[in-house]
Please model this.
Amino acid sequence: MAGDDYDFPAFRPPSEANSLLLRVTRGCPWNRCAFCPMYKQIKFERRSVEAVKRDIDTAKEYTGGKVDTVFIGDSDSLVIKTEEMCQILDYLHGTFPSLTRVTTYARALTLKRKSIGSLEKIRSAGLTRLHIGLETGSAQLLARIKKGAGPDTMIWGCAKARNAGFEVSLYVLVGIGGESSWEEHALETAKVLNEINPDFIRVRTLTPQPGTPVFQWWNDGSFQMPSPETILKEQRALIDGLSVTSRYLSDHVSNYALVDGDLPSEKAKMLSVIDSLIARLSEDVAYRTALEGMRYLRRL
Ligand code: SF4
Model:
């Protein structure tokens, strides 16, 4: 939904495809991650509470008030003042009384910096779920991709969010270890996820986008894109190393293995799907070619 004057986020998680999109900030206050092309053309801005309320009013006119879920953009809106976020959430819930879910992206460093009291206030005002980019649990890889947070910050920020009552959905970037560090990436990521025990683990597979440092590294040979076998082996090692009680989802078009399931109960089934895909790679040339082409997907 978008009217002429309605300012909606440029990006949202796939799981929010049917949600009302509401922009509270524009862009990313960090904007340095080496794989990310998302907000490179946008200067970070905080929108005023009044402007956001006007968007909520416009959304009500378009929908007749029938909205069940809302996604708040852009990439790190919890950087605004707690009181402002609570005012926006109060107005949102007052306008759409049937809301069952309100989510947003959040950076682990922002969560770590917020007090637990502030996070609890925001949770009580009706923000229910946080989508957080972990990408990898490897300290070395997090530094290389300039994520701006190491494993400890990821664990600390996510623990605070969970203690404040949020559902936590973490994103993992399959392939970011390349050919040389896939195993470290898988094992260290499993370790961090085991510490956090998030509600959801969502995987996306690296597709280097023009204009990003990772694309440049790939072109100059300092980063070797992993083969389809490596991608699948990495996912296998990740799932195998998990001792969480989380829902694992491959809900992104970039993924090679569409493996979903509840952990730990469906772990064996998920591993066997990946094993069959690895076996298929050595028998089916067309399948291998299709997977090799996935790295050229653009504008995801
Ligand atoms: S991955 Fe997230 S935190 Fe990193 S630059 Fe992109 S939007 Fe910002």
Summary: The chain has a mean pLDDT of 96.
